[in-house]
């Protein structure tokens, strides 16, 4: 690795997959980490040190780092340490200049004033990260998955609220269990908290969209709700999205199925929701992208939450703390509906009976096909799947030649 080189004339950048950046740190950490020998058969078998049937959601030391210098994203570099050394005055920590994986390879960095990551660089980083951690891809039969999370953020130290000299791009990979599971969950509408402002950053996966809702989600969880739902901030009369996932409603009339998703500019552009609706269209179903009024909720036969981690979660009920006599309530709009129940302080829309533990038929059909494509059991008609080979990892610098644990740590670098 090169020694630190001071450069005060141009911004520098570092790029990681578990890491990367665009701007001015003066060192490039390298680590020694157990990996599969490139000569061995690929992919290697899953490691036997993990209980794959009970993976959970804990981050493991399975990651790569990449660096970028002098206004350009450099080639990827392998780094094993999951902890990133970052300045305490970095804009990511102080001003929230950070985003993580979104629909596009750039993770929508324009929302947080970061330079875009070239598509080719992004794809190479992701493939290399997966390749060099191939033994951590869970066995198919466990239901677990390999989660890939690209990140980008401002990382150089500064006090002023101005573009930083350095940005970091990272790609983390980790084996995960099922986030919500496939059992139906109860949802609660949040009226006391607005996730995103009109004309704000609601459509981007930036930290500021998630941290504030944590206490509200935790409060809802203690009250028995597995997920929370946001209405539009301006009027609280239209559906935006769930706190963790996109909203998909299913209108069913005999054999005719229409999937309905909000077209609000304040919702995440979810690749999973798009995948689900593409599968629906392949079944001959209709798709509507439009405003969804809160009072329309009883019209849906099924409601699902779609997200990268959650995949597709069936919603059992949607509750809202609202006086049924309020002109904004469903009760005032539709009077009575088989799916609607209410008391003096709240109303609830029921989609799946309490005694039923399975998702509805629409959700099951969509989820079954999505999983089949992901696992290679169904033909990928959409071009979503990309092969990963040992060569994808072999291109990367910094890959340890041995596994004796004698590599440098960031604090040992000169």
From TrEMBL:
N6-(pyridoxal phosphate)lysine carried by residues: 205
Statement: the UniProt record of this protein carries the keyword Acetylation: no
UniProt GO molecular function: branched-chain-amino-acid transaminase activity
Keyword Transferase: yes
Gene Ontology BP, a term: branched-chain amino acid metabolic process
Keywords carried by this UniProt record: Aminotransferase, Pyridoxal phosphate, Transferase
Matches recorded under InterPro entries: Aminotrans_IV, Aminotransferase-like, B_amino_transII, BCAT-like_C, BCAT-like_N
Cofactor: pyridoxal 5'-phosphate
Pfam family, one: Aminotran_4
Similarity remark: Belongs to the class-IV pyridoxal-phosphate-dependent aminotransferase family.
PANTHER family: AMINO ACID AMINOTRANSFERASE, BRANCHED-CHAIN-AMINO-ACID AMINOTRANSFERASE 3, CHLOROPLASTIC-RELATED
Protein name per its UniProtKB record: Aminotransferase
The species this protein was found in: Pseudomassariella vexata
């Amino acid at each position: 690795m090169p020694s630190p080189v001071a450069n005060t004339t141009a911004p520098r950048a570092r790029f990681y997959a578990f890491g990367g950046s665009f701007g001015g740190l003066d060192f490039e950490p390298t680590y020694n980490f157990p990996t599969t020998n490139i000569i061995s058969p690929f992919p290697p078998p899953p490691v036997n040190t993990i209980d794959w049937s009970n993976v959970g959601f804990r981050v493991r030391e399975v990651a790569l780092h990449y660096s970028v210098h002098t206004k350009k994203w450099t080639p990827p570099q392998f780094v094993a340490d999951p902890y990133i050394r970052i300045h305490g005055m970095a804009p990511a920590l102080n001003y929230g200049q950070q985003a993580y994986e979104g629909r596009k390879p750039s993770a929508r960095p324009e929302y947080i004033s970061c330079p875009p990551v070239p598509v080719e660089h992004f794809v190479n980083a992701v493939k290399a990260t997966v390749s060099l951690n191939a033994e951590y891809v869970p066995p198919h039969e466990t239901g677990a998955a390999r989660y890939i999370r690209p990140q980008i953020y401002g990382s150089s130290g500064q006090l002023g609220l101005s573009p930083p000299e350095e940005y970091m791009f990272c790609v983390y990979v980790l084996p995960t269990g099922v986030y919500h599971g496939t059992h139906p969950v109860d949802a609660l509408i949040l009226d006391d908290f607005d996730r995103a402002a009109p004309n704000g950053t609601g459509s981007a996966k930036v930290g500021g969209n998630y941290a504030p809702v944590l206490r509200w989600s935790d409060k809802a969880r203690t009250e028995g709700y597995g997920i929370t739902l946001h209405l539009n901030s301006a009027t609280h009369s239209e559906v935006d999205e769930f706190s963790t996932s996109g909203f998909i409603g299913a209108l069913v009339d005999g054999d005719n199925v229409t999937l309905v998703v909000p077209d609000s500019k304040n919702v995440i552009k979810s690749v999973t929701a798009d995948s689900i609706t593409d599968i629906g269209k392949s079944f001959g179903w209709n798709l509507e992208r439009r405003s969804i009024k809160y009072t329309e909720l009883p019209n849906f036969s099924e409601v699902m939450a779609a997200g990268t981690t959650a995949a597709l979660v069936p919603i059992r009920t949607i509750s809202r703390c609202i006086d049924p006599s309020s002109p904004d309530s469903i009760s005032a709009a539709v009077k009575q509906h088989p799916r609607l129940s209410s008391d003096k302080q709240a109303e609830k829309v029921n989609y799946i009976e309490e005694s039923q533990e399975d998702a509805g038929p629409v959700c099951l059909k969509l989820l079954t096909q999505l999983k089949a494509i992901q696992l290679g059991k169904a033909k990928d008609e959409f071009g979503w799947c990309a092969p990963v080979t040992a060569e994808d990892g072999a291109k990367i610098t910094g890959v340890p030649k041995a596994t004796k644990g004698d590599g440098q740590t960031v604090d040992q670098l000169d």
